[in-house]
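anyone else get weird line breaks when pasting these?? whatever heres mine. first is seq + tokens for prot A
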Amino acid sequence: MTYAVAGPPTDHVETLSGARFGDSIVLDGYTFSAKTLTPGEVLGLTLFWRTDAPIPVGYKVFVHIYKPDGTLLAQHDGEPAGGLRPTHQWAVGDQVIDAHGLLIPAGTPAGDYVVMVGLYDASVNRLPVTQDGIPAKDRLQIESITIR
């Protein structure tokens, strides 16, 4: 597995979300380091989370990039903020800034690729997601990026 570092996280939300994960976790929004990349570059994605209620479970965040045919191109999984802000320690109402870096593999063909995020527990059970009250299954498609 290859890990990528995207640099320091941003402190501002570029795109608002409001998606709910499970009963109490909200993705306020996110910011990409770039939306057009070349193979070998790192996609930086900063997620801005909060909770409406105490969380008794430690969840991991996953960020996936999917190829146009729906297969996985790249992923990053881990506890929020590089393990420094585990979900079971989140205070109600506090914003958690959570940065992820995903390496675009060498040889990746040009095209548009979908980015999805989600949360899962130690048993790899994913939290259900709703966006604007509409179920989005167990992950949220946040945006597409372009590889050139």
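and prot B, same format (seq, then tokens)
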Amino acid sequence: MARSFHCSIVTPAKAVFDGQVDYVSFQAWDGQMGVLAGQSAVLSKLGIGSVRLDCADGQSKWYLVDGGFAQAADGQLSLITERAIAAEKLSLEEARAELAEAAARIATAGPELAKVEHDQQFALAKKALAEMMGGRGATASAAG
């Protein structure tokens, strides 16, 4: 059995990643999920959180994704998401500012509460990944 498989991360605007990987870990709606070569077919709703790609060349890449779907079938994994940001583009300062702004909007959200909670959850995930990466990133703008 092959050790690596094809993985792609796609947003409405572009393909963010397209390559061979040995392992992928991502936040599904109901918990963390890992995929290896030979994975049975699966369709899962993505949560907001980080994706770790252990590439076939031995390097690991990290992305922050904003929901969507994951489909494993025929030796491939596709992650289709609204937004995907490479971890090296994340800014810890920016994440902290976004989290504070979303927290401030909670009290006055009214009918927009679901959107504000979503923004808060995304900012929390961004902050966590930026902290994990050591805050090395530059200024982040949503890729795709």
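btw re prot B: The CA atoms of residues 11 and 98 lie 21 Å apart. DSSP finds two helices and seven strands in the chain.
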